[in-house]
Write the structure tokens for this entry.
Amino acid sequence: MHIGVPKEIKTHEYRVGLTPASVRELLGQGHEVMVETGAGLGIGASDEDYRRAGARVAEDAETVWSTAEMVVKVKEPLPAEYPFLRADLTLFTFLHLAAAPELARVMLERGCVGIAYETVTAPDGSLPLLAPMSEVAGRMSVQVGAWYLQRSQGGRGILLAGVPGVPPGRVLILGAGHVGRNAARMAAGLGAEVTVLNRSLPPLRQLDAAMPGRLRTGIATREAIEQELTRTDLLIGAVLVPGGRAPTLVTREMVRTMPEGAVIVDVDIDQGGCVETARPTTHAEPTYVEEGVLHYGVSNMPGAVPRTSTLALNAATLPHVLALASKGWRQATYDDPHLAHGLNIAEGKVVHPALARALEWGEP
């Protein structure tokens, strides 16, 4: 199969779909890989590194897209890439189509196949391709939040760790999945006062067992969220609905009750966000203030640490890339029901039930 790896064009996105090591594995199984020039520079991989691995290097994105049977990316196509989508193309990347109905419509109209990293499952029902980036984003959310709590960055002037005689900062995390657990670990490690709210008990029990005495847990009712927000310095949104849109758990009125200069890091913004006042931002312009609260809504947080993120992502995606390349999308998803859960759009139809509900286009 001919596999294409274009350079990511999202603002300050430095990750790349395949590393030279992954390219070498594909070449070893008889496939061909074309990489756009400069695609790997963000992770320290030069064009020559890709050539040594056996890839061809193209001078422009159009050449990569037009010759590929399957394109392997990191982030969803942006409008400048929409013209490259076509009926005989398989796209394997993060898509988050529930929050991107325009992209979903373009993919449907053009008839391409879209397999989303974020909905591929494991035998235990977990999301193994989303997990590495969730771990990165969860850990980064506390790091980012701590930075923006500094007065010079527009925050309250709070040190999350506190000092002797001064209480630590208060962190509220909504969601106890991969993002929430990693955020809790980082925040507790800094010495912050950490509260995690989730809608079901089992993940909270796991957190409590893993970090006894280091955090508080509770059920994410409206009342509990309202009570916590009035004393929260850093709010981290970490809600996940596989294939769907994140529910709004924090309304504008709730944000208004937070202390002035508090910080919101809505990690699930690429799925619509769980905070009503949150909107997507970029690494170039990451924050804005609304209702007296600093909001951070960068939708590709792991792109800021591209080497770590790309290596972690490739470790998870490569087996599926190999299967898709060797069998084609139809046979590969037939043979592997967990990969089949990644199939969002195919041949002009929405095939993922949660996505169909989120887009309100009816069940597939």
Summary: Residues 34 and 348 are 27 Å apart (CA to CA). Residues 2-120+306-359 form a domain with the Rossmann fold fold (CATH 3.40.50.720).
